[in-house]
Design goal:
The protein has 697 residues and is α+β, with helices and mostly antiparallel strands. Helices cover 25% and strands 25% of the residues. It is built from 13 helices and 41 strands. α2 links the parallel β6 and β7.
Length: 697
């Protein structure tokens, strides 16, 4: 008992001393120096916020906010003030304290932020980005080209934002850019700059090679030490902005520059792609003067599955047991830096499709349920916090229908992406807020077929079939008598004229129309494609020569079907170990049984079908039917002999269902096209997991 009491007294003493030190440090920080004010600053490796008359050490926890919603490209700036007010409340309720945006927003964004913060018990702070025109980056690969076009635009956009912070700017209308009159003074809520984009290594390399003499900059607030020309360019931009705000508004804030693993300052011995380790952007070469008392921090976008050294670095693999290459990388990066680090982007998508695997953790780029997404984010936040980073900003708050992904972008129409939801494209589904088709879900996989009551049958025979659709799926419903409840089902879909199989030899089924896709519902359920119409095999086999081509790929009516795949990686040879990993893919056509009703206890956002003794409900992603845009009824044309995919329009499909050893009749189904998508918002399961996680930080 006496020993326990002594331990308790010691613990109380330690806490008291720590509290005293904390308070002393807090009291030494000021929000004003030399007539310049700040509401945030970096000190002793931590981030401090000035609130209620004193500085408080703060862990930055929040989200990156995109610039669009369904039906709009980012440049169309379709989000309304009421959208922002609603979203800010969601974000605040999630126990977040910070929002990051990448570029100049419309006036109503800043107005909504001010309005929210004036009534919120805990305000939301803003980390503001300044975008650098990536089209110009690709075109010029040099910030000094065309009379410093890139640099001048970079600086001017930053100056405009400073005026915007203080409610003192009118921007003229320009297509694709924010414009209007800015009167909301939100300067006290802007706690940091995060300047720039994920740097193209060729842009960095070219700048360094073209301008070896521009490797030093001496400014009023920032200067360089042993910098590269590219780092000196960043220093000049940052110093110009800090100087402008201090001179015009007597205010400053911490500054940071966007970076990512591709241009980090570390050397990665096991990276198979030379571009991923060819050049560094090292912000330790950018120094702050005494006038820049809010100081500087490093910002990185850090995902668990990319680049490949996150999968194959021997040092990272061996660091922890069990293997945690993400945490190993965080520790390695932190050792390099003297300044504190913010993970400004991290995340995994709750998409059906995926584009990359994390070799050990399974924290892949896609094919996660919403619950899995939340638990993975929770794990990553724990790693970030334990490795003494100053904060973690999740990518992203909302899903983004306009996005593309490298392994599906050849199969859709770029100019139509915002108008439908492609669950096979993982980039569209990183959000904690989902945009789901319609005013409410048209069909829920839930063993209750009341959703189908008012939907007519496509046909009625031994099996009865119904079909409907929305901006995300083709839905199918098949009912049957008790005698067939355990029988495998074969659903045939004819989508394109003048091709397809008139039979399926393996199951002894014949069709009255050419069938392009076959759905099998059995102990293993999947959707398959006629090899002649297999886009994956055409692209990676016939065009790129990376894989073997399946039998029947050049034969119409081969009477066979093949599994459907998405690519994950080309063949890799790992430096240092010389390990060879073949071309990798996964079966995208595998169908998962489960409940798709978000209100059901067993909800699984990845559910594809659900079968009872009386019926089966199925939802088929449009892309798995070679539909390039369902809103305008555009599908892939016959691509034989072509190097790329082009589209043609369709009126509808023919659909049939039977068991094995039968003759199947297919009947027509069609639907109405649309010009603007309908949708409703829903907070994902991951949102609530993050809400609880943030509450503990």
């Amino acid at each position: 008992m006496k020993k326990a009491l002594i331990i308790l007294i010691v613990l109380i003493s330690v806490v008291a001393v720590a509290t005293l030190i904390y308070r002393q440090n807090n009291q030494t920080l000021t929000n004003e120096e030399n007539g310049i004010k700040t509401t945030a600053r970096i000190e002793d490796g931590h981030f401090w916020l000035y609130e209620n008359g004193s500085f408080n050490q703060t862990f930055i926890k929040g989200v990156n906010l995109g610039a669009t919603k369904p039906g709009y490209f980012p440049g169309e700036l379709g989000i309304t003030k009421s959208d922002y007010l609603r979203w800010f409340q969601y974000i605040s309720d999630m126990n977040a304290n910070t929002i990051r945006v990448y570029t100049t927003m419309m006036p109503h964004f800043y107005e909504a932020l001010l309005e929210h913060n004036q009534t919120a018990s805990n305000p939301l702070y803003l980390m503001q980005g300044v975008w650098l025109n990536e089209d110009y980056i690709k075109l010029y690969q040099d910030p000094y080209a065309e009379n410093q076009l890139l640099m001048n635009e970079f600086i001017q956009d930053g100056k405009d934002l400073i005026d915007i912070f203080h409610g003192n700017k009118t921007l003229p209308e320009r297509p694709g850019f924010a414009s209007g009159t800015y009167t909301a003074d939100i300067s006290d809520y802007v706690i940091a700059w995060i300047l720039g984009v994920e740097w193209d290594p060729m842009f960095v390399t070219n700048t360094n090679q073209l301008h070896p003499d521009k490797n030093h900059y001496e400014g009023k607030y920032l200067y360089t030490k042993q910098a590269s020309p590219f780092e000196a360019f960043l220093t000049k931009v940052g110093d110009t902005l800090l100087t402008y705000e201090a001179d015009q508004y007597q205010q400053t804030r911490p500054i940071s520059f966007t970076n990512w693993l591709t241009t980090d300052p570390l050397t990665h011995m096991n990276e198979p792609d030379p571009k991923e380790d060819m050049v560094s952007v090292n912000v330790e070469h950018i120094k702050t003067t005494k006038l820049a008392f809010a100081k500087q921090f490093a910002s990185y976008h850090i995902y668990p599955y990319y680049p490949e050294f996150m999968n194959y670095s021997e040092a990272y693999i061996e660091k922890f047991d069990p293997v945690n290459t993400y945490k190993a990388y965080l520790r390695d990066l932190n050792k390099h830096h003297n300044m504190p680090i913010l993970v400004a982007e991290f995340g995994v998508p709750s998409s059906r499709g995926k584009a990359h695997d994390a070799r050990f953790s399974g924290y892949n780029q896609g094919n996660h349920s919403e619950r899995e997404q939340g638990l993975i984010l929770q794990s990553l936040i724990k790693d970030i916090h334990e490795e003494d980073y100053i904060g973690a900003l999740i990518f992203a708050f909302q899903d983004e229908w306009f996005k593309r992904t490298w392994n599906t972008m050849d199969f859709d129409l770029a100019w139509q992406r915002p108008f439908w939801s492609n669950v096979e494209t993982n980039e569209q589904m990183f959000g904690l807020l989902a945009f789901e088709p319609g005013d409410q879900l048209k069909v829920k996989l839930d063993k209750d077929d009341s959703d189908w009551t008012n939907i007519p049958y496509v046909y009625e025979d031994t099996y009865k079939l119904k079909a409907t659709s929305d901006e995300r799926y083709l839905y199918l419903y098949v009912s049957y008598d008790d005698a067939f409840k355990d029988e495998p089902l074969y659903i045939a879909i004819d989508t394109i004229d003048d091709q397809g199989n008139f039979g399926y030899t393996d199951k002894q089924i014949t069709y009255d129309k050419g069938v392009d896709f076959l759905i099998t519902i059995d102990t293993v359920s999947r959707i398959q494609v006629d090899p002649y119409y297999d886009a994956f095999s055409h692209l990676y086999g016939e065009v790129l020569g990376m894989i073997e081509q399946p039998d029947g790929i050049n034969t119409k009516d081969s009477k066979t079907f093949v599994n459907m795949y998405h690519a994950l990686s080309k063949a890799l040879t790992i430096p240092n170990t010389n390990e060879v990993f073949p071309f990798s893919k996964y079966e995208a056509g595998l169908l998962k049984s489960g409940y798709s009703d978000p209100n059901h206890d067993a909800f699984d956002s990845l559910a594809d079908y659900l079968r009872t003794d009386q019926f089966v409900e199925i939802r088929v992603p449009w892309l798995l039917l070679n539909v390039m845009d369902p809103s305008t009824k555009a599908q892939m044309k016959d691509f034989k002999g072509d190097m790329s995919f082009t589209h043609q329009t369709y009126e509808g499909f023919n659909i049939g269902v039977s068991n094995a050893n039968s003759a199947m009749t297919l009947m027509p189904f069609t639907y109405e096209s649309w010009s603007m998508p309908s949708y409703h918002e829903r907070l994902k399961q991951s949102y609530y997991i993050i809400k609880d996680t943030f509450d503990l930080l």
